[in-house]
């Protein structure tokens, strides 16, 4: 018998959007307030896992065709290369820079190279944690 | 120029990450891994020349000055080890091309191998206690996967022991770091050294020192080596050669660094304790080496004896003792890789690891046999091969420090090595040839390159130690004089 999961599906569709939005908020807050790539990445993972639980793995894989192992490697690579950026510019490894720039609509915005590093961290966290959960779930013999 | 010292750490890391993205391009991975390791080797040679002329190289990550930032420090001792690591890694990866199965290659073998190398080199170059822990974890995580990759029953059994004992020692390591931070309020090696020199090394600090010694003793196979013979003999040859050559050496490096730079105030407690452990290690390792008939077990017990012998040089804590320890450490990395690779080829050819079931390989494989003989002589420490000079200096150091018992046990351990390794030579290479070349389970095609390079290096180091002698002298001078390291890290800044 097919279980009736209309409520779960409907709530998940709504909730996952909120979770993803909140994780982006956490990620952006991280530069000066509590938050950042790690927390943002984990919250995003929570949203993805919720989708996996509510629907099934195959459906989500079809709609979100991401190889999470690759994502993790890519994330670490981005972070390391951000560090190398400092070296190329003649500064120390992992040296960061920032500047304030006027952007239309947003006003005066701080742009920092640390954000690139954090994007890498977020990718690595999402990739690793989703891979762990998926490999545990595949283990049902 | 200072900036290049980060390259040996990040080049293998970046290459490994790229390999994960290029999973199915095995050929590209092979070429790139050799290119990366050669680049690391060249960088470390540059660093050595520079350090010899201008002193210790340091870099503060993110430009946060010491002691607040996290430092990378390359003194001569570290750099020599980085150079040796890269050479051993090149040989093992070339060996792996022919001997590692396609399934392993497709399951990120080269990526993991380079992560392991990155962790090893990072441990040698870091100037920060917590980052030492981090790099230990990097190399351990890579090694966990390399031990289990393949998933045979025996691999999983040994990997369980290996993982549990290493996690336990990592926890103790963290406890030690926490104690250290609560006592000194800092985790930079140089700053800890300054603080302890100011306050004096009291009983509490000595206890913490012993805790660190236990942690690193597990990793180095000093006395607490019972996990080692099993887990080093189960993975494929290229991997176990890297483990034997590099992983225990990271532990030894950490012990030497801690007990020359930080805990050097109470040698009559800490260093004598290290001496006792080293002596016990040599005796127990020697008994293990002569007791077994499996070729891999004999070789892994030889790794244990080597650890004890190197740390006997530290226990002496004289100039000659450390000189010997440095020479022997470099020699040991090369020779352990070599002897493991040859041992692996023997097992590969005969299809068995029991010495009683093999015989007469010298007729079908004369080069392999003679290279094994050279490696055996070098391992025992017969001149003019690379093991000799280290043995002489370590023995002299222990006699100078009035630790006669330690020196004598070291020499007796050499006899045990002689017996165990000649047993392998006589059983595997002498006697009647059991298998003709057609009947053998494998061939030596393509694996001799790596073995020849390493054999050449052990002969070259033995005949011409003058080439590295100025560098080793600089290394030992810095080890005996912690102030050089401290001045290089702080670079004239105020020490808070």
From TrEMBL, chain A:
It is found in: Cell membrane. It is a multi-pass membrane protein. GO terms for cellular component: plasma membrane. The keyword Glycoprotein does not apply. It comes from the Bacteria. PANTHER family: NA(+)/H(+) ANTIPORTER SUBUNIT B, NA(+)_H(+) ANTIPORTER SUBUNIT B. Belongs to the CPA3 antiporters (TC 2.A.63) subunit B family. Pfam families: MnhB (PF04039). The lineage of its organism: Bacteria, Bacillati, Bacillota, Bacilli, Bacillales. This is Multicomponent Na+:H+ antiporter subunit B. Keywords: Cell membrane, Membrane, Transmembrane, Transmembrane helix. NCBIfam families: PRK12573.1 (NF009223). Residues 7-130 form the Na+/H+ antiporter MnhB subunit-related protein domain. InterPro entries: CPA3_antiporter_subunitB (IPR050622), MnhB (IPR007182). The chain crosses the membrane at residues 12-31, 37-58, 70-94, 114-136. The keyword Transmembrane applies. Its main location: membrane.
Automatic annotation (TrEMBL), chain B:
InterPro entries: CPA3_Na-H_Antiporter_D (IPR050586), NADH_UbQ_OxRdtase (IPR003918), ND/Mrp_TM (IPR001750). It is a multi-pass membrane protein. GO terms for biological process: ATP synthesis coupled electron transport. Residues 127-416 form the NADH:quinone oxidoreductase/Mrp antiporter transmembrane domain. It is found in: Cell membrane; Membrane. Keywords: Antiport, Cell membrane, Membrane, Transmembrane, Transmembrane helix, Transport. GO terms for cellular component: plasma membrane. GO terms for molecular function: antiporter activity; NADH dehydrogenase (ubiquinone) activity. Belongs to the CPA3 antiporters (TC 2.A.63) subunit D family. This is Multicomponent Na+:H+ antiporter subunit D.
């Amino acid at each position: 018998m097919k279980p009736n999961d209309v409520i779960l599906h409907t709530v998940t569709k709504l909730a996952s959007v909120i979770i993803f939005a909140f994780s982006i908020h956490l990620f952006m807050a991280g530069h000066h307030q509590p938050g950042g790539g790690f927390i943002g990445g984990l919250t995003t993972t929570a949203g993805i896992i919720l989708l996996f639980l509510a629907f099934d793995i195959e459906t989500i894989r079809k709609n979100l065709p991401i190889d999470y192992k690759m994502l993790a490697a890519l994330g670490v690579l981005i972070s390391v290369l951000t560090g190398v950026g400092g070296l190329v510019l003649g500064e120390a490894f992992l040296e960061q820079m920032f500047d304030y720039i006027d952007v239309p609509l947003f006003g005066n915005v701080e742009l920092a190279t640390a954000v690139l590093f954090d994007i890498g961290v977020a990718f690595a966290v999402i990739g690793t944690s989703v891979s762990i959960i998926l490999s545990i779930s595949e283990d049902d013999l | 120029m200072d900036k290049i010292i980060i390259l040996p750490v990040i080049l293998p890391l970046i290459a490994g990450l790229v390999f994960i993205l290029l999973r199915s391009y095995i050929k590209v991975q092979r070429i790139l891994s050799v290119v990366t390791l050669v680049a690391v080797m060249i960088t470390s040679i540059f660093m050595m020349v520079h350090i010899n002329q201008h002193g210790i190289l340091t870099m503060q990550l993110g430009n946060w000055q010491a002691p607040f930032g996290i430092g990378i420090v390359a003194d001569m001792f570290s750099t020599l080890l980085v150079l040796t690591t890269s050479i051993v890694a090149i040989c093992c990866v070339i060996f792996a091309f022919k001997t590692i199965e396609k399934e392993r290659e497709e399951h990120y073998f080269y990526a993991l191998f380079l992560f392991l190398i990155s962790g090893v080199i990072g441990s040698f170059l870091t100037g920060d206690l917590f980052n030492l822990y981090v790099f230990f974890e990097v190399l351990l995580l890579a090694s966990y996967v390399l031990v289990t990759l393949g998933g045979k029953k025996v691999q999983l059994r040994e990997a369980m022991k290996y993982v549990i004992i290493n996690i336990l020692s990592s926890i103790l390591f963290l406890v030690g770091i926490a104690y250290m931070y609560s006592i000194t309020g800092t985790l930079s090696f140089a700053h800890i050294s300054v603080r302890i020199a100011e306050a004096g090394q009291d009983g509490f600090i000595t206890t913490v020192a012993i805790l660190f010694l236990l942690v690193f003793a597990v990793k180095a196979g000093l006395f607490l080596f019972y996990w080692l013979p099993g887990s080093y003999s189960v993975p494929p040859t290229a991997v176990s050669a890297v483990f034997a050559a590099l992983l225990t050496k990271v532990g030894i490096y950490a012990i030497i660094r801690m007990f020359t730079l930080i805990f050097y105030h109470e040698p009559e407690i800490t260093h004598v304790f290290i001496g006792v452990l080293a002596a016990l290690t040599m005796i127990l390792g020697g008994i293990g080496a002569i007791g077994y008939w499996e070729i891999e077990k004999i070789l892994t017990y030889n790794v244990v004896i080597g650890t004890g012998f190197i740390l006997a040089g530290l226990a002496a804590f004289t100039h000659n003792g450390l000189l010997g320890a440095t020479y022997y450490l470099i020699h040991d990395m090369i020779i352990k890789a070599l002897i493991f690779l040859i041992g692996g080829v023997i097992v590969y050819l005969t299809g068995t690891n029991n010495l009683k079931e093999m015989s007469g390989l010298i007729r079908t494989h004369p080069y392999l046999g003679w290279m094994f003989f050279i490696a055996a002589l070098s391992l025992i420490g017969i001149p003019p091969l690379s093991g000799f000079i280290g043995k002489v200096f370590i023995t002299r150091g222990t006699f100078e420090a009035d630790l006669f018992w330690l020196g004598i046990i070291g020499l007796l351990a050499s006899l045990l090595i002689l017996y165990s390794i000649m047993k392998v030579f006589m059983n595997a290479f002498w006697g009647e040839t059991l298998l003709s070349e057609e009947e053998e389970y494998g061939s030596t095609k393509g694996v001799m390159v790596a073995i020849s390079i390493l054999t050449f290096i052990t002969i070259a180091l033995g005949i011409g130690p003058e080439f590295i002698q100025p560098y080793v002298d600089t290394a030992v001078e810095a080890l005996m004089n912690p102030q050089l390291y401290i001045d290089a890290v702080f670079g004239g800044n105020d020490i808070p």
